[in-house]
Design brief:
2 copies of one chain form a homodimer. In chain A, 27% of the residues lie in helices and 26% in strands. Chain A is built from 16 helices and 31 strands. In chain A, helix 1 (15-27) links the parallel strand 1 (7-11) and strand 2 (32-36). In chain A, 56% of the residues are buried. Chains A and B meet through helix 1, helix 3, helix 8, strand 22 and strand 23 of A and helix 1, helix 3, helix 8, strand 22 and strand 23 of B.
Amino acid sequence: MKTEPTTLLIIGGVAGGASAAARARRHSESAHIIVLERGPDVSFANCGLPYHIGGDIPDRADLAIQTPDSLRALLNLDVRTLTEAVSIDRENRQVRIRSLGDGAESLLSYDQLILAPGASPLRPPLPGIDSPLVHTLRNLQDMDRIKAAAAAVEKVAIIGAGFIGLEMAEQLHTIGKQVSVIELQPQVLPQLDAEMVRPLETTLREKGIELILGDGIEGFETTATGIDAKLKSGRNLSTGLVILSIGVRPESGLAKDAGLDLGPRGHIQVDSWQRTSDPAIYAVGDACETEDPILGKRTAIPLGGPANRQGRTAADHIFLGEKALRYPGSIGTAIVRVFDQAAGIAGYSETRLKMEGTPYQTVTVNGSSHASYFPGAETITLKLLWSPEDGRVLGAQASGKDGVDKRLDVIATALRGRLTIDDLAHLELAYAPPFGNAKDVINVAGFAAGNMRDGLLVPVPDLKSAGVQIVDVRPAAVAAKRPVPGAKNIPLAELRGRLAELDRSQPVFTICQMGKTSYFAARILANHGFDARSILGGAHHQLRTYREI
Amino acid sequence: MKTEPTTLLIIGGVAGGASAAARARRHSESAHIIVLERGPDVSFANCGLPYHIGGDIPDRADLAIQTPDSLRALLNLDVRTLTEAVSIDRENRQVRIRSLGDGAESLLSYDQLILAPGASPLRPPLPGIDSPLVHTLRNLQDMDRIKAAAAAVEKVAIIGAGFIGLEMAEQLHTIGKQVSVIELQPQVLPQLDAEMVRPLETTLREKGIELILGDGIEGFETTATGIDAKLKSGRNLSTGLVILSIGVRPESGLAKDAGLDLGPRGHIQVDSWQRTSDPAIYAVGDACETEDPILGKRTAIPLGGPANRQGRTAADHIFLGEKALRYPGSIGTAIVRVFDQAAGIAGYSETRLKMEGTPYQTVTVNGSSHASYFPGAETITLKLLWSPEDGRVLGAQASGKDGVDKRLDVIATALRGRLTIDDLAHLELAYAPPFGNAKDVINVAGFAAGNMRDGLLVPVPDLKSAGVQIVDVRPAAVAAKRPVPGAKNIPLAELRGRLAELDRSQPVFTICQMGKTSYFAARILANHGFDARSILGGAHHQLRTYREI
């Protein structure tokens, strides 16, 4: 714990840096708190940038949460914008800084230093990438440039279909642009499992947005009318404007030059109080690596929530010492809106668990955003992953038109509490017809997971894994309207009387609309001696995700 | 664990009983499952009843989730409606039943018996209470009667301002009735703390609904034009129709007559597998008492979610024995919509903690339903209660126009996981501008609670507890528009320069709009040596809840 007065130098004035400065000021009026920011703005709403381009946030001023002046007035901060840090002299606790205006350099002394440099959008060294028509989106100036450039063109290519890529696609479509999205993976939103984002892909295509999946970018060529994006497939995409959103790289050069420990992917290594390998230097936000509390590994989650709370943690440790609350790590909760759809994740995806070699089980269920008998209910699809060892939840993904954020927040809370599938089964969530369900989709996922463990539910993950004997147990009229490929229709109410129609020598795969009745049917069949298996997620999920790739 | 075939007799065919029957059938095709129901309907959406009266659910058939016929067809149940159980012969495992049609009595044998009789609306023995104009709402027939009766009258009196009372008030107002609500407590929704329901009361009054609080009913008198409700205050309320919604009483008469153990308030006592004191008899739903997992006491929560999951638990124990998942108790999560407002609770209220004599701390904060810079954000007020001993969350209440259900679900999950205020501070909730916040109101509540523990936040619960030196730190224009009684305005940005205007010899109470800036101001003052205290919830909460009672 430091005795006052202290000089706290913070490099970076947006999410993590601004949070650290504000929190530090709550601890001490006498501390000299200096915030260096390379750009002209501090503490702006970087997550809101796409929404000003598309007009959802019409007033640009709404994105400036604070200004250098307001931070000076409210927090008595020494804010120096358009100033960058050149090097750190750890021995003498000094930082060499340079004014971007006149290039003048000087030295700043510190008692504690907080690095909050963020992460910069990846710009791989491809031919033509330096064209002024190839944009990335990090700050208000990038936003202004894209907004101005978009006004003058008809076609926009977005490279990368992650969260920001999809937000940009939605917003640019909204202002009438013809949008193509190019993604190296064979799916949008590669943070989620492929089958969970099929509805988003359908929505994007229905809106007229072109999805070019499983294809990469090889280079760009400026033309008389705009710019050509040259794809790995050989395709040449002529467009007026390119937005590159293929990920970010931690801005850890300053830390590296100062000899601080970095992680394998270049992130600044910190402990649970955000201290780097030099105890006088902290790092927060997108540039640093943190603990993954789910599997106990290291992780880096470049999102605003973690950055803000890490900034607070660093400031607490400076002023409270070991009494300060530790940062408990990041689980990676994220959500995106794409027109009337939402999709998101908390914790691990199936793809990542496979990559880690971690044993898991998974189930996918559907539920209603609120009581299905109350107007406005929408279907939510929820995919749950857990450890077969102890039933502990490892992650979940959700998609739908309403209530997706709520279910992700419940899962995020469950992950923090290390809850199990049995805990989910008995969560007592708020229920009144406009708001929830007596058995919420979260409970149902817990029920289904427990049923799998107990052998009551023998799941088939998808239609393609189903064998030849598929029974569609939906009412005849529903089955006729949107048939399941290869299925024989026996409505549930008739099943007990028509068992003789089924071949006992091979498994029976049951399917229905939502994945609930098919489970009921499989239980009937299993209790009559069949090898019965239920196709998860029902026609609602399967017919949207089934596709010959 | 029972060997098949078994005869399972279930008394009551709505939430808990129907869930038990359905779950039992998944376990066994050969079990004889009999469902007795006194009414004509089974498995109907009782939580939806008010919404058909008001027209939100226009089609009555939507409330019939299952019918006796559909249960026979889908679940092969032996459903006997309009049949009541008269007595239980535990020795011989027989139940005497009576047909409500012809009064014929007969005996039914069982291997296991599940009691799911529910709870009946309280009808105290007041003069005139048997008037046909005094209604209660429990089933579809009650609903039909109220709907028909309401059509013919102008004025309706609702006795009891609990969840159902308020839903009925909203719905009857929606169809043009002049509604008066009479409540014995000096507030609506006595399940919540008084100050948290002030916004609901304001909304109800603004809609023209008369709230008669802190007044009780002494009796009724039928008149030429309708019915007079005679209140304890002496007032005589002339109305066309009375709806009594003052609570429910467990229907445990059958269990009592059979000598099963009952709790102090007449609920059937069960263990965590829902077994009564007779191991062949289970009880589920509103009629039984369960564990309170928060304080380890006994509790009874007459709501649909617990009933459904208790029914499932009983069926599991019958077929799986000790492998069955135990019911973990009920925490009491509830929510109500009142026009454009919502309010709800998870866990204990301050009032109940006081009654239990349990030590607690509490804080009230405001936050935004999603990023405040994104259109459509609404303010949520959250009151958090926790144990000073270990920081464990004991309960929370929320109110607002959007996102109340989500925050209650997070708290409900936190209660199940026995999370602490520090866990809430670092919950990593889903954030994108349309859905959440980088620092959600849940995080902010955790921050504030931690600040209280660490002495950074010295809270003042309400304006009335504030002393004479109140400083309103909002911008001058805001403070002038809606002034705080007795406050001197010093905007935060000017505070450091105007310290000399304050009296150091007495405490300074700070207030702002949302309760955040006042905390910042109090930190400045405390760091300058003042005894500074922040008024919780800001003007947003205080000016709505402040009232001379």
